Amino acid sequence: MIRLLAVAAIVVLSAASVLGASIPQHCTTFAGSDGTSILVGNNEDCGNPVINLWFLPADGERYGRFLIGTEGTIQGGMNEQGLVFDSLAIPLVGVPFNDRPLYDGMWSVRALETCATVEEVVAFYEAYAMPGPWTSKLFFADATGDAVLLEGNAVVRKEERFLVSTNFLQSETAPEGITCERFLSATASLEGHDVYSAELFRDILDAVHVKYDDGAGTVYSTIYDLGARSITCYLYADFEHPIVFDLGSELAAGARAWKLDHLLTDNEAFYAWRDRKLETFARQMASSQESPVHPESFRAYTGQYAVQGEPILNPPATLSSVSIVPVGNRLSLVACPESISYELFPVRGDQFRVATLSNSPDLDVAFLRADDGAVTGMRLVAAGAEYTLDRVGGEPKFEPLEEFMAELPTLGDGLVGPVLESGRRRSVWIGALALAAGLVALVVALSLP
Length: 449
Hints:
Layout (H helix, E strand, L loop, with lengths): L16 E2 L2 E2 L5 E6 L4 E9 L4 E6 L8 E6 L5 E4 L4 E12 L9 E2 H8 L3 H10 L4 E10 L5 E4 L4 E3 L4 E4 L15 H11 L6 H11 L8 E9 L4 E6 L7 E4 H6 L3 E4 H4 L4 H20 L15 E5 L4 E3 L2 E3 L1 E7 L2 E5 L6 E8 L2 E4 L9 E6 L5 E8 L2 E9 L18 H36 L2
Antiparallel strand pairs: 1-2, 3-4, 3-13, 4-14, 5-6, 5-17, 6-7, 7-8, 8-10, 9-20, 10-11, 11-12, 14-15, 15-16, 18-21, 18-27, 19-20, 21-22, 22-23, 23-24, 24-25, 25-26, 26-27
Helix pairs in contact: 3-4, 7-8
């Protein structure tokens, strides 16, 4: 019996919590073509403020591509052929096994790497089995104007000038039964216009963006012009300050990666929310470290690790092995050939925790050793389920995303150190103020008759 990982373990397409607090998933994606323009709009709604962008030029059989997501996950993007991809959270769908082979890796990202059209995506999708608990559906659109939704047990094709998707199963919902206000609002706008433009798509994204009580909500938005191969990004529902990328020019400049909030800095509300989230997260992670771990010890863990028995399923991913790769003074877990990457935060000895705000629940990693001290494998623990992997080689098979962890720190020296030092300084000041207040109270008390 293949073991199913029903709660996110290594690869997380649509994060469900931050620090244990449930965050609704209210993403909206839509594609439209009017005979001249072909556009895709997307609001990514979640509770993770670490938003990363990658531009990866073509290499071998992979197309040049733009990727976007939170931390080391990939939630969407566009390739040089004008194929756009996005993922949206849905109620859990159980997909049964069939006689097709399992794709070993992150299927949706591989489709962006190797497909040019929706027809090629559907053919690729139908060539593989993807059983298990689907918690997200996949949206693809191409430069011909075609678009499709893959919902696990069903394929929903674009039949009109547009295709809209939110977080319900459209293959199981009659049009008259749709109640999602974001879906209905976007649909009405697209139906009411004969000409589609980036300005119209921006206005739709603005109209359907969400905000949660804790400050989370629409953390980023994108508009893809599939004909022009351009990408417009917005941060935290600020639709007055976009940044526009020409895909061809960016790919010609070589592989690069950025944080979106390093490029769009005129957003005080985002920075205030982000800093609160990151400081709380960093304190929680730092408090879990029982003893310091020297980065030189990380080299002992380097290599490839294979799952014992059947692979782990978390559609659209099938994971039969992972790589452990030291990067500077930090340690990266690379979950699949498509380079989904996470930092491992040391807790004590051979014990680590996956350091990601998109991980629910926490994923713990314990490296296993033989009697002579050699690392022989690892144990993954998530949601009470345990998975054992054997170390099958000293060289990692997968590499982290370009510049991941070097330029895109989540913890390590980039956050925990300053946060703890800030906390120490704050404690000193609080102590000093308390002492001063006590002295003042004493003086006042002594001066009373």
